[in-house]
C-alpha cells in the first residue's frame, strides 16, 4: 500500500519518522548511516529511486524498501522528506582539522587559521556531495521533495558555513529545502535541550513534530498528492 | 710534485666524466651537513622544485607542508588549487627578489596587504605574487588578501618546522612595479593589465641576486636559527625573454648568473649549499638527452637521475629532532578519528532506535 509520506536519509530521519507515526501518518522511512551518504556513491535508479554504486547490501535494502512502498522512493505518488546532502559530522571535522576556514572574519581573527576560498569550498562540496546533489535534483523532478536541513546541535562556525552553503547550492538547483533554523525562534540558536534526543546530537520526537507542523502549516506539504 | 698529482678521479674530466658516462657519474654532490634521521625539508622555487617536493613525498622523507589542503581533499582538487605543490601555496617563485619579498612578509617586515592585487574585468581579484594560484580569481579583494595571509602563515610555519629550505633559482628576468615590488609574471600575461608607465622589466644582475639571497638567508634564520639553505638552479630554459637577446643567449646568461651566485653564496656560508641539478640535466654528459622534443621540458628519466644523486648525497644519520611534533600530529589525527568513529556509532544507534516502534 502506498504510504502517506516517505522519509529518507541519514540518522536525522528518526525524529521525523517518529513524529509522523505519532501523528497517525502512514509514513515509511529508509535510513542509511551518514557514512554511506558521505561516500557520495548513492545515485538515481529508475526502479528503486536510488542505488549505491559500490555497496551491494545497501542495494538489497533499497530494493526491499522499494517493494514495501510499491515502487520508486521518488515518485509522483508520495511526498518525500529527505535528510540527504549534508552529513556534516563526516565532512567538516577533517576539513577544519588544520585550521582551515571559509570565513574571512575567522581567518582575520585567528593566527592559526588558513582561509579557503569560496571557489574551493564549492569544488570541495562537488567532490564530496556532487552525486547526492544530482540525486536530489533528479528526485526533485519526479516527486514532491523537501530536503530537511539538519538540526544545529553545536554552534561550530565552519559547520554552520558548510550547512548554509549546501542549503544555498540545493536551492540554486530549484530544490525545496526546509531549514527549521531559519524560523525566528530557532534562528542563530543551537537545538534546545528539550528538543534533543538522549544522545544529544539528534532531534527527538518533539523536534520532529515541530518540523512536520511547520512544514504542513507554512510550507504546504501536500499529503494528498 | 704538484697539486694535481694527488687529486681523485672525479677531479679529471676524462675519468670523472668521459669514461664514467652519464649514469656512471659519482660524487657530484655530498651534503656537508649531518641532518637528523627525520629531517624535514621545505621546498620552494621555480617549477623544477616541484620534482624535489614530489620525490621527498614518494620516499616518505620529511617534507613540510606548511599550508596543507583541508583534510580529506581529493588529490586532483588539491592540485588544481596548488595545495601540496610547494611547502606553502606560493606558486612558482622564479626570482630571488620574489623570495625575499615573501620572507619579508613572513617575518612581518612587509604588510601582507602591501603587494598589489590585480582586478580583472569581471571584478575578480588575482594576487600579483601568484596570479594563477586558484583556477578562478578571488571574488573579493578581502578574500585575496586573507588567502595571501594564509600562504604567508604557511611559509612561516614551513621555515620554522624544517631543517632544510630547498630553493630552486629559476630566472634572472622579471617584472616589477615602479616601487620595486617584484611580480610573479609580466602583468597582462596571466593576470593584470600591462602599463608601460607602471611596469618595469628587470634582468637582475649577479650583485642584486646575491643581495636578495643574503637578505633571504637572514630572514630565514630569523624564523629558524638552525635552518640550512640548499640552492639549486633550474635547468629549464626560458620560455621567452624580454631582454632583447635571442632566447638561447638569454637563457645561458640567466642560468650562468644564477649558477655563479648560488655557488658563491654556498662557498661563503656553512649553512648554505648548492646541489647540482642544473649540471646533471644540462651538462655535456647528457648531450641534452633529458630534454623533451621541445628542448625545454625535462624528461622523467632526467628527474630520476637528479633525485638519485640528491638522495645519494644526503646524510640523514643525525639524531631525530622531530619525534615530539610527529607524535603530536599522529595523536591529534587519532583523536579526531576516534571522535568521528564515536559519532558514527551514535548515528547508527539512532537509526536502529528509529525502527523501534515499541
UniProtKB/TrEMBL annotation, chain A:
Task: Name the chain's protein.
Answer: SGNH/GDSL hydrolase family protein
Species this protein is from: Donghicola mangrovi
UniProtKB/TrEMBL annotation, chain B:
InterPro entries with a match to the protein in the record: GSCFA
Location of the GSCFA domain: 41-310
Pfam families the UniProt entry points to: GSCFA
Q: Which domain of life is it from?
A: Bacteria
Q: Report the protein name in the record.
A: GSCFA domain-containing protein
> Whose protein is this, by species?
Donghicola mangrovi
Amino acid at each position: 500500500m502506498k504510504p502517506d509520506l516517505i522519509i529518507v536519509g541519514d540518522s536525522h530521519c528518526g525524529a521525523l519518522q517518529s513524529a509522523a507515526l505519532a501523528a497517525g501518518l502512514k509514513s515509511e522511512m529508509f535510513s542509511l548511516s551518514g557514512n554511506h551518504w558521505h561516500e557520495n556513491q548513492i545515485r538515481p535508479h529508475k526502479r528503486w529511486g536510488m542505488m549505491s554504486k559500490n555497496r551491494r547490501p545497501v542495494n538489497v535494502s533499497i530494493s526491499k524498501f522499494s517493494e514495501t512502498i510499491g515502487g520508486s522512493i521518488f515518485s509522483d505518488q508520495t511526498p518525500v522528506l529527505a535528510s540527504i546532502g549534508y552529513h556534516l559530522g563526516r565532512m567538516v571535522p577533517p576539513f577544519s582539522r588544520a585550521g582551515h576556514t571559509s570565513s574571512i572574519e575567522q581567518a582575520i581573527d585567528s593566527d592559526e587559521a588558513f582561509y579557503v576560498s569560496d571557489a574551493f569550498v564549492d569544488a570541495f562540496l562537488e567532490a564530496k556531495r556532487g552525486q547526492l546533489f544530482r540525486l536530489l535534483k533528479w528526485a526533485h523532478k519526479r516527486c514532491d521533495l523537501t530536503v530537511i536541513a539538519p538540526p544545529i546541535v553545536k554552534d561550530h562556525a565552519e559547520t554552520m558555513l558548510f550547512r548554509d552553503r549546501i542549503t544555498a547550492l540545493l536551492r540554486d538547483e530549484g530544490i525545496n529545502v526546509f531549514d527549521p533554523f531559519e524560523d525566528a525562534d530557532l534562528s542563530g540558536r543551537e537545538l534546545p535541550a528539550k528538543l534533543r534526543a538522549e544522545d544529544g546530537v539528534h532531534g527527538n520526537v518533539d523536534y520532529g513534530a515541530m518540523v512536520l507542523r511547520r512544514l504542513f502549516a507554512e510550507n504546504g506539504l501536500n499529503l494528498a498528492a | 710534485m704538484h697539486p694535481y698529482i694527488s687529486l681523485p678521479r672525479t677531479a679529471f674530466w676524462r675519468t670523472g666524466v668521459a669514461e664514467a658516462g652519464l649514469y656512471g657519474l659519482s660524487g657530484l654532490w655530498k651534503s656537508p651537513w649531518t641532518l637528523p634521521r627525520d629531517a624535514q625539508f621545505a621546498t620552494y622555487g621555480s617549477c623544477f622544485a616541484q620534482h624535489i617536493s614530489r620525490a621527498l613525498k614518494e620516499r616518505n622523507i620529511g617534507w613540510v607542508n606548511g599550508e596543507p589542503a583541508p583534510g580529506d581533499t581529493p588529490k586532483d582538487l588539491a592540485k588544481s588549487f596548488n595545495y601540496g605543490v610547494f611547502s606553502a601555496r606560493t606558486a612558482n617563485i622564479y626570482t630571488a627578489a620574489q623570495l625575499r619579498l615573501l620572507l619579508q612578509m613572513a617575518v612581518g617586515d612587509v604588510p601582507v596587504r602591501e603587494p598589489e592585487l590585480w582586478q580583472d574585468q569581471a571584478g575578480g581579484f588575482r594576487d600579483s605574487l601568484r596570479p594563477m594560484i586558484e583556477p578562478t580569481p578571488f571574488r573579493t579583494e578581502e578574500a585575496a588578501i586573507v588567502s595571501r595571509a594564509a600562504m604567508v602563515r604557511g611559509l612561516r610555519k614551513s621555515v620554522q618546522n624544517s631543517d632544510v629550505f630547498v630553493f630552486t633559482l629559476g630566472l634572472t628576468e622579471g617584472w616589477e612595479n615602479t616601487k620595486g615590488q617584484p611580480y610573479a609574471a609580466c602583468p597582462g600575461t596571466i593576470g593584470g593589465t600591462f602599463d608601460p608607465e607602471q611596469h618595469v622589466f628587470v634582468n637582475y644582475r649577479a650583485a642584486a641576486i646575491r643581495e636578495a639571497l643574503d637578505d633571504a638567508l637572514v630572514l630565514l634564520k630569523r624564523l629558524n636559527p638552525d635552518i640550512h639553505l640548499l640552492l639549486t638552479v633550474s635547468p629549464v630554459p626560458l620560455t621567452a625573454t624580454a631582454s632583447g637577446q635571442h632566447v638561447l643567449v638569454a637563457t645561458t646568461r640567466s642560468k650562468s648568473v644564477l649558477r655563479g651566485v648560488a655557488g658563491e653564496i654556498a662557498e661563503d656560508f656553512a649553512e648554505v649549499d648548492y646541489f647540482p641539478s642544473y649540471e646533471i640535466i644540462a651538462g655535456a654528459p647528457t648531450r641534452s638527452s633529458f630534454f623533451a622534443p621541445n628542448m625545454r621540458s625535462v624528461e622523467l628519466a632526467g628527474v630520476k637521475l637528479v633525485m638519485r644523486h640528491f638522495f645519494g648525497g644526503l646524510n640523514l644519520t643525525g639524531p631525530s629532532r622531530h619525534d615530539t611534533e610527529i607524535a603530536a600530529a599522529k595523536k591529534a589525527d587519532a583523536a579526531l578519528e576516534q571522535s568521528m568513529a564515536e559519532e558514527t556509532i551514535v548515528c547508527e544507534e539512532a537509526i536502529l532506535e528509529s525502527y523501534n516502534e515499541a
